[in-house]
Design brief:
Structural class of chain A: mainly beta
Low-confidence stretches of chain A: none
Oligomer: heterodimer
CATH topology of one domain in chain B: Protocatechuate 3,4-Dioxygenase, subunit A
CATH superfamily of chain A: Aromatic compound dioxygenase
Radius of gyration of chain A: 18 Å
Shape of chain B: globular
Strand order of the largest sheet of chain B: 4-3-8-9-10
Largest sheet of chain A: 8 strands, mixed
Order of helices and strands of chain A: HHEEEEEEEEEEEEE
Number of strands of chain A: 13
Distance between the termini of chain B: 37 Å
Distance between the termini of chain A: 33 Å
CATH class of chain A: Mainly Beta
Radius of gyration of chain B: 20 Å
Structural class of chain B: mainly beta
CATH topology of chain A: Protocatechuate 3,4-Dioxygenase, subunit A
Number of domains of chain A: 1
Low-confidence stretches of chain B: 1-6
Strand content of chain B: 15-25%
Mean pLDDT of chain A: 97
Chain lengths: 199, 247
């Protein structure tokens, strides 16, 4: 026998199921008005610092079918690379949003502020990116991924540089489609599968 | 939303994947095409996962954690067995997780969800919406008043039924703590027939999702109580952390 450790194990995840919207985005599910304030509608309010960008795309499964029930949350630094809560962070920027696929087309759109370069504990800079966390029916543990930007310098990013299969880095890079607009398609499974993290 | 996250980021304890469900399970058919084939890329958390959104009790309405009354704004109570669901949220280091957002959603007493896509033949309850939310107190405690959801059949194998369950979404202090799970009810014989439950491969970990009847917290002539404690990832902090090389 040894001494007993005073630690606990994380509660097991379970799928969010097809009706995740009831709990997280009730208006989308047809429950508008149940809360006075529905959270996660936007990452910023008027007057936030930085460039407004619009990223849109789809989420496809291993057969190529688009998910119409998926939801993801996005989380990011402000235009100066500071996370809400850090000294000097933009008070008009919450950094967090909930994004749903359109129930008919499967297309999603995230309108946000383009993030700046954030700094890790070791002093290394991260290239501008938006963290996403995808939940849906059939997804047993929420999937962590990131959206980077084609028109930024991503070469020295500490996370991207750890990806062994270099051709897969491209799955994390949003393509510029116009002035302030980007496209980013997520693939849950297959040869062109998006890189998912365990961080 | 109020921004009072910690100003300093601390590395997360790597996730112990052995407690979690497998991504691919042929008996849960939807997982077959929605599970990544490539391994997840594991690395230490960064500032992005260590900070996260922060919510305040001020963002919540007075009935937000009362599913019996929140759909009708207090006018008419929902149909069903009245229950209190309560518990404590801690991290892997046994520290309470205060001021964190807990959201729940569930079917009504007949097993029907109020959702545009649910077409089960059990009727909607005009007095029941099916979602609630609250923020944990300084000791990590939360509570909801609701009705016990019904079991329901779902299209998977020939005759699959979901046990009675409540979906939980919890935040924690950083985006990397994010967790969604389901609470089951003590004594429900459908738990061990359910292919979604069975994506968790160890019985001991399944049992951690089953809330016991907490008779001591029931209220005579009003409601029964169930207790559901949740553990989130912890942060790794020692005297050797947070010092850049050479300092």
């Amino acid at each position: 026998m040894v001494q007993k450790l005073q630690t606990l194990q994380e509660t097991p995840s379970q799928t969010a199921g097809p009706f995740v919207h009831i709990g997280m985005v009730p208006t989308y599910a047809g429950l508008s008005g149940i809360y006075d304030l529905e959270i996660g509608a936007a990452t910023f309010v008027d007057g936030a610092i930085g460039e407004i960008v619009e990223i849109s795309g789809t989420i496809a499964d291993g057969s190529g079918a688009l998910l119409r029930d998926a939801m993801f949350e996005s989380w990011q630094a402000d235009a100066n690379g500071l996370f809400p809560g850090q000294d000097g962070a933009d008070p008009k920027f919450s950094g967090w949003a909930r994004v749903c696929a359109d129930p008919e087309s499967g297309k999603w759109t995230l309108r946000t502020i383009k993030p700046g370069r954030s700094v890790n504990r070791d002093g290394r800079q991260q290239a501008p990116h938006i963290a996403i966390w995808i939940v849906a029916r059939g997804v047993n543990v929420g999937l962590q991924s990131r959206i980077y930007f084609e028109d930024e310098d991503n070469d020295s990013d500490p996370v991207l540089s750890r990806i062994e299969h270099k051709h897969r880095i491209d799955t994390l890079i949003a393509k510029k489609t116009g002035d302030g607009t980007y496209s980013f398609d997520i693939r849950l499974q297959g040869d062109d599968e998006t890189v998912f993290f365990d961080m | 939303m109020s921004n009072v996250a910690p100003a300093e980021s601390v590395p997360l304890i790597p996730r112990d994947r052995s407690v979690h469900p497998v991504a691919y399970d042929v008996n849960y058919k939807t997982s077959v095409t929605r599970s990544p084939k490539f391994p997840l890329l594991a690395m230490e958390s960064t500032a992005t996962e260590e900070f996260g959104p922060v919510f305040s009790q001020n963002d919540m309405g007075p009935l937000d954690n009362n599913l019996i009354l929140n759909w009708t704004q207090g006018k008419e109570p929902a149909v069903g067995e009245r229950i209190l669901v309560h518990g404590r949220i801690q991290d892997e280091n046994c520290r309470p997780v205060p001021n964190t957002l807990v959201e729940i959603w569930q079917a009504n007493a007949g097993g029907r969800y109020r959702h545009i896509k649910d077409t089960y033949l059990a009727p909607l309850d005009p007095n029941f919406g099916g979602c609630g939310r609250t923020v944990t107190d300084e000791n990590g405690r939360y509570q909801f008043l609701t009705i016990r959801p019904g079991a329901y059949p779902w299209p998977n194998r020939g005759n699959d039924w979901r046990p009675m369950h409540i979906h939980f979404s919890v935040f924690g202090s950083g985006f990397g703590h994010r967790l969604i799970t389901q609470m089951y009810f003590e004594g429900d014989p459908l738990i061990y027939r359910c292919p979604i439950v069975a994506t968790v491969k160890e019985r001991g970990h399944i049992d951690r999702l089953v809330a016991p009847l907490d008779f001591g917290h029931s209220k005579p002539l009003d409601y029964l109580a169930y207790r559901f404690d949740i553990i989130l990832r912890g942060n790794r902090q020692t005297m050797f952390e947070n010092k850049p090389e050479g300092m």
